[in-house]
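This section describes the prediction task in plain terms. A model, or a person checking by hand, is given the sequence of a single protein chain and must write out its three-dimensional structure as a string of tokens. No templates, partner chains or ligands are provided. The sample shown here is typical of the held-out split.
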Amino acid sequence: MELLKKKQSGYLATPVRNIPFSAEILESKLPKNFKFLHVEEYDGKGDPEENLSRFENVALLHKYSDSIKCRVFLNTLICSAQQWFNLLRPEDIKEFKDFSKAFLHHFSSSKKHPTTTLSLFAIKQQRQEDLRVYIRRFSALALEVPTATTDLLISAFTQGLTTRDFLKYLIKKPSSSYDELLARAEKYVNL
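The expected answer:
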């Protein structure tokens, strides 16, 4: 009965298996107002920095203590990420900083590399590709380059165009902003 009470209160004096957390992390009690909201699970395949950042936002919102952050973050790990955690040495993690550093280091090969402005110049309207499809592809890529200026977006977009009539129209009357360019492209497509 005592063991059940300890389990319900979030406190277990002795872990059932060797866990990489320090005794302090394992022995810290969950606060009475503790809420475990859904945090996206991590299986080792996505960007670890993005995943950790989303988790830290939730932890900040709920004011999780350092030890609670460790235990809650563990519950977001699945598949290969859970297997990695299980292979860590007992009591290797003394604070969340240790956990996050080990996590980022191990899954660094899954990190998403930022898209550069040069990528925008590499995208071209394919032969027989509808202008609307090209606009969608280019715009999706442009969203991944937050540092791209209006002039750069206009230049890259027009350089990739193969719809000659529309390109001639843009050369005769250049757009002053990327939004204006997209609006004009949409009008051209609708015609």
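For orientation: The chain has two domains: 2-110, 117-186.
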